[in-house]
Amino acid sequence: MTHNLNVFAQLEPALRLPDLKQALYDADPIFLPTTVVSLHGDEHKEKRRVVQSLFTREFFRNYQNKVFPNALKETLEPVVAEGRGDLSKFAYRVLVNLVADASGLDRDHTQEQTDKILLIIGKLGKAPTMGQMIGGNREAAIAEIVDALRIFRESYYEHSAARRRALIAAREKDPSVELPDDMLTRLLQAFDGRIEEDQLVRDTAFFILAGAFTMANGLQNTMWEILSWCKKHPETRQKLLDDPGLMQKFVWEALRLHPASPVARRKALCPVHLPNGETAAEAEIVDINIAQGNRDPSVFGPDAAEYNPFRELPRKVQLHGMTFGAGMHACVGRILAAGIPYGAGMEVDEGTEYGTIHLVVHALLSAGADFDPANPPTIDESTTRKHFHSFPFVVRKAG
Ligand code: HEM
User: pTM score > 0.90 for this model?
Assistant: First the structure.
């Protein structure tokens, strides 16, 4: 039997139940089940501590002020020169470069390399949906993932890990040697020699997938909602550019309506009492429906299913709802993606964490991004997530 939780107030308590184990990726035999998002108990705690240790204030500042502007410039310049772009490609190009830097992949930043990582992510992206595949499709997906991990290892992981290993060894002799601040360095420091190399490859590849896929989806949905809003309320565009708090509301409201991971799936390790009053017997599945809970009218009001960044919320409820999960697997990249809650009267400086989606949306709106009137976005209707086949947009031409 599968238990379904979809009332907002039940989502977080369910995600915090210690005897419910990750089950969303059980159908994938090779990639996700051994990464942090699937581990349980002490094994999970240890790996999560390492992953989380990357996200310090210093990391955010460096990322926002140094890494981000370069990655953005690289991707935005050709679009501005052309006067147009396709957000379904632009989003991945800009975000994959950012996440690849945070992961610790040494690259020469050519378009060709970016496209190669995108190809790898496209193949690895089959893993989360393998549960719904049958027969030949499943065999083909497994072959693609094996292939993607091989290309990832040969093209990015091996030389990046070798350089970091050499630096870690040099630092043991000379503490003044500086280490890169990225995921791969942290993983090597914690686990090198203790877990097999292929596992380190999977851990690094998962980090890229978790960051790029979700943020690209969030960015496209946010731009779609904001541009649709600005069509009806043209005066909002300038206000969004001037007021970071207002922009955050617009981003978070879009993330509430379009969670990248609509359902969290768990399996009971023993009989477990659920927040909806049911008891899950051992090995039964519990589906925690984030997408539906995020539209619960008892929390978000009678217009919960609509885009309204100005809605009033009960205390302690964030406008992005449960989009980043909660409990042991709560998203470690939340601040990187969506920033810290922006409060009235908050002191703002160059280190204020607005989050990556906020920064990219700001850059796009500043460049005058708008729907392309001749080419409306096309949406893939085959999945419950709102996923864009194409999202043409125009910007002001440079010069
Ligand atoms: C809009 C962007 C994002 C969304 C909506 C999102 C959503 C989520 C959700 C719902 C989970 C929990 C999954 C579960 O409970 O089964 C999760 C976990 C995770 N996320 Fe994110 N995420 C985003 C961005 C990022 C970024 C940018 C990174 C890293 C660069 C990241 C890294 C992770 C990791 C490592 C986990 C696993 C944590 C663990 O299992 O302990 N995410 N994310």
Answer: yes
